[in-house]
Design a protein that fits this description.
- The protein has two domains: 6-289, Aldolase class I (TIM Barrel); 296-389, Alpha-Beta Plaits (2-Layer Sandwich), CATH 3.30.70.100.
- The protein has 15 helices and twelve strands.
- The chain has helices at residues 6-15, 28-41, 59-72, 87-96, 110-125, 158-168, 192-202, 216-224, 234-247, 255-276, 283-289, 309-323, 356-362, 365-378, 392-403, and strands spanning 20-24, 45-49, 77-84, 100-103, 131-135, 172-175, 206-208, 227-232, 296-302, 329-336, 346-352, 384-388.
- Helix 12 (309-323) packs antiparallel against helix 14.
- The longest helix has 22 residues, at 255-276.
Length: 405
């Protein structure tokens, strides 16, 4: 089943009265626990990545694991880059393998929020990647200051919802109806009357940030009023910390066993959420409605007429530097032929987020400058071929046939 288009995923949840959990991934232990819970529950899931405060070290390495886990999963998975603040964040999130991004300009005035989100949506949509916008501000429980982020919640203005969606073209809308990031000390009071009116005006999947600490009844009311994605993190860290405190003094637990216990506690909490949010058992029907998410590799073959190694190295460095700035380009590799009879000495392999980036690439001035100057100088004839990269699960039927032939 593997990595799927998140727009398809959330539209299915929205129209079928359930919510998909977006569980924040901060380590491989969180990743393993969330994926196992989703597979055992036969539930779709969203892997949330949030590096807004720069707390995740070696994000590139973690994202390699996140993308790999998504592609080999037996249930539908999407990867979301949460709380982007700038266009650079969006480009980086897509480069890392996320197939949805969330632009958070909720602390700005309405006109500025609209302007920034519209630009973000245009950029992201050019890569075929859906966008989550935010209207109304969800603050943090542990705030000790009065900055715009932590000054308190600003509830989503009902009269701005339809205008915001029309002007920005967002695919999903994160709203504020009383939740906070973190766990509130008293029972959360949510404005369900406001939510119902927002849902009537939006007509697109709604998102709740700050999902920890709500009752089952509150979750059900959220889902019944258009919420299709629930962000969930604080409770997972609490489970991990409680398990750590309980087991670290126990002599029977070694290092590996300790983290196995932590993964199990996260696993149990994720499974519980999936059951409450009605996503359990939905994997098969979701897959039927979702397009699989495939990367594309754009391959260019060329020769070096000069044979000057220094000039070739400069060409490679310049090409990588220029092309890596293009939205939707994930990585770039350059290969050199190992056979003398090869027609072309070098090949460029440019991995793109998906098929939508091909047309964007072909019209991008940076790419055109690269292709029409450097490559033209190196090779008058330069074939360019696009390959859609198959998921491993796509190959399973063929492999089974071959293994029994």
């Amino acid at each position: 089943m593997a990595l799927v288009d998140m727009k398809d995923l959330l539209n299915h949840a929205y129209h079928n009265s359930y919510a998909v959990g977006a569980f924040e991934i901060v380590s491989l232990d969180f990743l393993k626990a969330v994926i196992k819970a989703a597979e055992d529950s036969r539930s779709p899931v969203i892997l949330n990545v949030n590096d807004r405060k720069g707390k995740i070290k070696n994000l590139d390495l973690l994202m390699a694991g996140v993308e790999r886990a998504a592609r080999i999963s037996t249930v539908p998975v999407a990867i979301n880059f949460d709380h982007c603040a700038t266009s650079d964040d969006i480009v980086n999130g897509i480069r890392l393998g996320c197939n949805c991004v969330m632009l958070d300009a909720s602390d700005a005035s309405f006109p500025i929020n609209v302007d920034r989100t519209k630009k973000a949506a245009t950029l992201s949509h050019s890569c075929g990647v859906p966008v989550e916008g935010s209207l109304g501000h969800v603050s943090s429980v542990d705030s000790q200051d009065n900055t715009s982020e932590n000054a308190g919640p600003v509830l989503t203005p009902i009269h701005e919802v339809a205008v915001y969606i029309e002007r920005t073209s967002v695919d999903f809308l994160a709203i504020s109806i009383g939740t906070k990031h973190g766990r509130m000390q008293s029972k959360n009071k949510l404005d369900f009357n406001r939510l119902a009116k927002i849902n009537g005006a939006a007509k697109i999947p709604l998102v709740i940030h700050g999902g920890t600490g709500l009752t089952d009844n509150q979750y059900h009311k959220l889902i019944d009023n258009g919420v299709a994605k629930i962000n969930y993190f604080t409770a997972l860290t609490e489970q991990a910390m409680e398990t750590l405190k309980e087991t670290i003094q126990d002599s029977q637990f070694g290092y590996m066993e300790l983290f196995e216990q932590i993964r199990e506690s996260i696993y149990n909490e994720v499974k519980r959420c999936m059951q409450v949010w009605r996503s359990t058992g939905r994997a098969a029907e979701v897959l039927i409605q979702c397009n699989l998410w495939h990367n594309v590799e754009h391959v260019i073959a060329c020769n070096s007429e000069s044979g000057d190694e220094k000039q070739i190295q400069q060409m490679v460095l310049r090409g990588k530097n220029d092309l890596s700035r293009i939205p939707g380009v994930m990585n770039i590799k350059v290969g050199k032929s190992t056979t003398e009879e090869g027609k072309y000495e070098y090949c460029w392999i440019i991995r793109l987020a998906n098929q939508s980036v091909v047309s964007t690439l072909n019209n991008n001035p940076v790419y055109l400058s690269f292709a029409n100057s450097i490559l033209r100088d190196q090779s008058p004839e330069k074939p360019r071929i696009n390959y859609e990269m198959l998921n491993e699960v796509d190959l399973e039927p063929a492999l089974l046939i071959a293994s029994h032939a």
